[in-house]
Amino acid sequence: xxxxxxxxxxxxxxxxxxxxxxxxxxxxxxxxxxxxxxxxxxxxxxxxxxxxxxxxxxxxxxxxxxxxxxxxxxxxxxxxxxxxxxxxxxxxxxxxxxxxxxxxxxxxxxxxxx
Length: 114
Prior knowledge:
Radius of gyration: 13 Å
Number of strands: 10
């Protein structure tokens, strides 16, 4: 059973930064596109960023220029660097395989508030 464990969330003021991490317990991590998703209360879960096995990235328009996704295939870890955070970035953040989603992890709460 593949497990996805997210960490790094917290409470931050507008304009602040956070770095999220997601560790996958799978030997196939390196060949799959990984995505970061977020879900705010009352909203659907949206993809925020994704990174292919080769390092190609895509972002939700609202986070372009502020968020950066990266991965370390040696440690089965995907990261999301979030800068210039806004109140509307408040959500629970999750990672998952994009093409073949696995059971969702517990996520990590990001709260942007003054």
